[in-house]
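Minimal example, chain plus pyridoxal-5'-phosphate.
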Amino acid sequence: MRKTGDGTSEAYPRAMPEGPRVYLDHAATTPPDPAVVEAMLPYLTEIWHNPSSIYVEAQEAAKAIDRARARIAQLIGAADAEEVVFTSGGSESDNLALRGVVAASTRRGKHVITSGVEHHAILDPLEQMEREGVAEVTVLPVRPDGSVDPQAVEDAVREDTVLVSVMHANNEVGALNDIAEIARRVKAKNARTVVHTDAVQSAAHLGVNVDRLGVDLMTFTAHKMYGPRGAGALYVRHGTPLQGQILGGGQERRIRAGTENTAAIVGFARAMEIAAERREADISHERSLQERLIAELPRRVPMLAITGPRDVERRLPGNVSCAVGFVEGESVLLALDLAGIAASSGSACTTGSVEPSHVLVAMGVPEELARGSLRFTLGRMNTEADVDRLLEVLPGIVQRLRALSPIPATEAPAAWAPWLD
Ligand SMILES: Cc1ncc(COP(=O)(O)O)c(C=O)c1O
């Protein structure tokens, strides 16, 4: 990407707007907690040495990684700290889980089951693996609220199913899946099938326990829990067939080579610790803001459909997603940005593409309505005033954009009716 004369990139030519900002995009990433930054600093400035080396500073770094591993293992209910494999984040952990299990299971089969609303860090590697001929993939349909039916997973399991990967919480519409029930049914039908869940969005909000959920593999990332970007983990239950995918230095029990990012790993553990300490307070705070938005948005904006579960108990705390008829989600986002509000349409990773979100399409949301998708994800620091601001500016933005559109925003097509209720 080329830089312009004033140092801004051509792809992002707009200056940082002045005035107060409201951040409603916590599912994309979260601001690092000051206590996390404080915990990390010594490992950037003093103990920056390679943890594999022999001298005393390097051993200090290695010990810090061991402590972080033990703490994370304890927080997720792992029997052994060795079952926590550090990676660079959610995408890497997902890729490792899929490729690692399939590569280690060739004698048993190559059938993999997943759902149509998974993150691209699951769907894209699986698509590639199918093209390469190393996997045969069943992509399950989902319910209209974005959740996966455990019975459908059970029905799809076969003798040669080596892996089931279903996300714990959806990043776009916040739908929670009953992973414990899914794992129980999978194991009852085929005890050797490995069960993986992507807990990137849920780990901080809900807390996760690998035994209670009954999974063999679980994906984590630090930057969705007020930790740093560039650190994550894959929980790997002892006995799970898994072949390392990044080979070299032999770090992480030869599953993931590469000099460890000590500071980020320390920050990751601290972030998970803080999330556990604050869980009850965070959940009740985010749920109250979320409930207000879910109730108020459809009242204030005509032809706005809340997507994902209506019942907040079945939805990720803080997640509010909707589809607005007769506007493009991206245009609304730009106008919100100018008004001081940072939000997202669908998943941040696909922002910029004009295709409607694959999640909404899989849920059966009509394509024209899905083009107006918006996602507001609230966090610890959001206030009632932030919600007020969004409720104040969004109706006017939608009204203005509809007035400019060549397509008259008259009657909602009949196909939208079930979504607009
Ligand atoms: C459900 C889910 N899985 C995986 C990822 C990728 O995580 P990372 O950004 O740490 O690679 C994301 C990020 O948005 C996500 O929401």
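The two ends are 44 Å apart (CA to CA). The longest helix spans residues 262-300.
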